[in-house]
Amino acid sequence: MVPALLLLSALPPVLASLAAESASGFAGSNVSAIYPPAGATITTDESYFPDAEQVGYAGPTPTGAEAEAVATAPVAALNTDAYPLVVAQTPYSGTGVPFQVIRSWGNLSPWFSVGSGEFGLPSADPQIPSGCELEQVHLLHRHGARYPTEGSAPSTFAETVQAAATGSGFSAIGPLAFLNTWTYKLGAEILTPEGRQQPFDLGIAFRVKYGQLLNGFTDLPVFRTTSQNRMVESAIHFAAGFFGVPDYQTSYHQEIIIENSGSNNTLAPWSACPNANDDVAGDLGGYASGNWTQIYLNATVPRLQQYITGLNLTVNDVYAMQQLCAYETVALGYSQFCGLFTEEEWRGFDYAIDLSFWYGNGPGNPAAAAQGIGYVQELVARLTRTPLTIFNTSTNATLDGSNITFPLNQPIYVDATHDNAMSYIITALNFTTLAANGPLPVDHIPAYQTYHVHDIAPFTSNLVAQVMSCSGSASPTEETNSAATGPAPYIRFLLNDGVVPLTGISHCETPDPNGLCLLENFIQGMQERIQEVDFVYDCYANYTPPALTEDTIIDGRMFQ
Ligand SMILES: *[C@@H]1O[C@H](CO)[C@@H](O)[C@H](O)[C@H]1NC(C)=O
Ligand SMILES: *[C@@H]1O[C@H](CO)[C@@H](O)[C@H](O)[C@H]1NC(C)=O
Ligand SMILES: *[C@@H]1O[C@H](CO)[C@@H](O)[C@H](O)[C@H]1NC(C)=O
Ligand SMILES: *[C@@H]1O[C@H](CO)[C@@H](O)[C@H](O)[C@H]1NC(C)=O
Ligand SMILES: *[C@@H]1O[C@H](CO)[C@@H](O)[C@H](O)[C@H]1NC(C)=O
Ligand SMILES: *[C@@H]1O[C@H](CO)[C@@H](O)[C@H](O)[C@H]1NC(C)=O
Ligand SMILES: *[C@@H]1O[C@H](CO)[C@@H](O)[C@H](O)[C@H]1NC(C)=O
Ligand SMILES: *[C@@H]1O[C@H](CO)[C@@H](O)[C@H](O)[C@H]1NC(C)=O
Ligand SMILES: *[C@@H]1O[C@H](CO)[C@@H](O)[C@H](O)[C@H]1NC(C)=O
């Protein structure tokens, strides 16, 4: 249950001073490796290594039946481990489930299964409820673990360290002594090795849980992603896990939607929403997390400063060190930055990311629902098997207008996306229970919080819509079910295995212990949501967003 633990505590100052030394000139410099190493002689004569077909003798190769463990197993398989990552765990002396550093990195945490109780449905389970039969599944997943954005805070911190090392020099001791010889080993943007494993594992899990639905295909499946390198590679790793290697190459069609400014792309919708990228709606997340960071790291700066001379730390440096803990861990398997921080500082970091998403990409942002609504239009088209004919949001008319690139008869839909898009889409879907504790304060962590980015958009976060047919004996509430005669189609959503209540959506208000809503009611709710979200105004109008302290937006739309 608990990932690899390593108890570290800061060295006592006396011992620490024994380790004192000066920074090397290379401290903070970039290091990267190209494989195969330069100068390697690569044998080009493939005749030494005939492939499997040429060698032959493969042995018997009969296949078995498709699995449907989401219905046949008595309990759900859950994702609780982050092998092979090792994380320095802060000392913990409380009782109950230990605080886990690796789960407090917001969108930089690996994904873990979330209990349904986290979202308010303690008795719900990812397994198909008895009396129900699975008919269709829609998966939206984030890419796997990645290197930082090019030129962002972690590399800026490395430049600061390098400038100090090559300037008048610095000297770090005790818990910071490693900085004397630390180098920056992270690339930018692309997947890390762990980031390849996550979508691959998700693909395998999806085959085991939902493979049976493949029997209902009449053509090869079309799965979608966007054009960025990490997006394409995540999608392919998912497919490699789902179909197997090398079979994935001939088992499905990979649709790659252009992600670039000016492109319509429901899986990267900001390029079709100018306000998301300018000071109308684009700054709020950074302001909110920036204000909070000044507060929660205020005492951390002097605490760490006592271990380093010749380099004056700022709040931004220390925030970058927390990010480096997460990025180095998911890239290199371990990071010495992780052991520097207390549980309270990690809770502060997690909350800084909650603020960044709430105001920047979530319920508190005036252009968030508008950016997610294109995917909702696509979902309704798929659920109703009705072709899209009007393209008035981030949908691409060329792709979504064709039944080849936008088929409506698939039992399984798989779309890969980004963290912010997951948040936009969840906001557009009106999962208001996640926003139940209202606008997030920028000066303290509220005692009761329903909005956690580590549950919404961690690496390879996955949102699954299960469409199923349930008979009268199933668990749907009697009230909704009595109206139906015989089996009726229902839908529910699992966010990282946690069942999400749909009660904030019009026509799905009746609580259901399994999170189910009648499919036709859900569709009606989404059709109303599509009317309610003013894409043109929220994305294009020149309005002034509310000041942070007065931003009472809770469903991602600008007041009008
Ligand atoms: C590391 O490389 C990036 C470009 O790849 C550059 O912008 C940055 O300044 C370099 N940092 C250092 C410390 O040399
Ligand atoms: C829509 O997608 C097609 C096919 O990839 C592409 O050629 C076109 O530029 C896209 N249009 C927009 C507005 O994104
Ligand atoms: C704090 O928020 C205000 C807007 O309310 C913004 O102008 C300011 O830049 C923010 N401070 C930081 C450090 O991000
Ligand atoms: C940071 O700490 C200093 C010294 O204790 C204090 O004067 C200042 O107000 C604090 N700033 C914030 C943003 O809490
Ligand atoms: C760090 O700050 C102190 C006090 O403001 C100043 O005297 C010193 O020159 C600074 N050191 C560096 C390396 O900037
Ligand atoms: C792109 O989106 C805009 C805004 O909704 C729309 O006017 C335009 O027709 C779309 N273009 C394509 C090719 O989908
Ligand atoms: C796709 O559209 C074409 C032309 O509009 C039509 O002939 C064909 O039957 C459609 N295919 C499916 C699977 O709906
Ligand atoms: C979406 O949620 C908002 C805020 O709770 C609510 O006012 C609105 O009626 C909901 N809309 C739909 C269509 O569910
Ligand atoms: C887009 O078109 C659909 C279908 O006519 C309509 O229901 C919806 O309100 C329109 N949305 C916008 C933002 O114009």
From TrEMBL:
The keyword Transport does not apply. InterPro entries: Acid_Pase_AS, His_Pase_clade-2, His_PPase_superfam. One of its GO terms (molecular function) is acid phosphatase activity. PROSITE patterns: HIS_ACID_PHOSPHAT_1 (PS00616), HIS_ACID_PHOSPHAT_2 (PS00778). This is Phosphoglycerate mutase-like protein. Residues 1-16 form the signal peptide. Gene3D superfamilies: Phosphoglycerate mutase-like (3.40.50.1240). It comes from the Eukaryota. The keyword Ubl conjugation does not apply. Keywords: Hydrolase, Signal. CDD domains: HP_HAP_like. It comes from Daedalea quercina L-15889.
